[in-house]
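User: Could you check the structure of this?
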Amino acid sequence: MSNQKIIVGIDVGTSKIRTVVGTVQDKKSTINLIGIGISPSEGLRKGMVSDIDEAVSNITACLEDAERMAGEQIHRAYISTSGGHIETYDSKGVIAINGNNSEITEDDVDRVLDAAQTVSLPSNREILRIIPKNFAVDSQRNIKYPVGMTGIRLEVEAHIITGQLAAVKNLEKCMYQTGIDTEEIVPSVLACAECVLDRKQKELGSVLIEIGASSTNVAVFEEGAVIYSSVLPVGGSHVTNDLAIGLRCAIDTAEKVKIEYGTCLEADIPEREEIDLSQISKTDEHSIPKKQVARIIRARYDEIFLMARDELAKIGREGLLPAGAVLVGGGVKIPGVVDLARDTLQLPVQIGFPKEIEGIVDRVDDPSYACCIGLLHFNHRYGNTKSILDFSFLKPFGKVGQWFKNFIP
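Assistant: Sure, the predicted structure tokens are below.
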């Protein structure tokens, strides 16, 4: 069909690389999923490329699987990034309004966001996103969409997400070597939010917690906008490492134990129940108490949620988000995680699953696919719109009017 286009999202994680291919029609919000690819990620460490050749090989294998299933060649894609190299800042911008009747236009909003992004950053950092939290026109504050209003002074409070320049360029280089033109690099937690949070959750106040392999990403939403985000340096791989040390077994065995027997529900396990490692490993033959496995896993998840609670306390939102917490990522599939998060955060908690998709939905009905499906939503919603600011290094959410229309209730 003439009004149908193909969109692609590639989630380049520390543990797995996932590629999804979808088709969309201009007037439809639902994405038809037609292709999926997944491969191990052995060329990345803590969210950054550590071996370009290995990363290119893994990405190529993932792309080939997705292309084979979709029956389409992939040339362009939205790419996710995460890990400890991500840093965030809050900034303010102020401008004077010129023109007839002092009416605020989209060009004025462009200029005030331009002013906000002039914050002094280290030379090794690149701006990935600048997100307007709210505007002020003269003495009137907390304005969501100032275009059309009259005033002589326009201010903005913005949230800026940056990545390490070398990490971003190395990721783009890997994509180039696989034949992929990188349309945008999107922080993974924002991609996840696009497909698991609805407008009401963003308006009332919620926190999205993405537990990945090497890190945990936190983003707080209120009144339709991101008001805070951060990266915690712990994730699912730390759980595996804890098990390997605590159980005195190989790292591969520890990973299998986590996947097959992992739980946070220590109280539900009988005292004498054991796991025979010889049944799942060729190198380890001893037996281990299942209760000990749960105790080790729970301790690490306790740490993750306590750190997330501390992040909420920094902005005065501890226990004060009506829409609660939404958990995504491969690390949230351990039984008992929701109950543990609810007790620690003192908030309603649920696991987030991708929404507004059709086609091969059963293959992606999983919180670990939230990021790559979210990239498709990003592409569909903002891919055809002109950037707010005309800078190649500054890639915001799309045309000002389109951005705000998606959040105004």
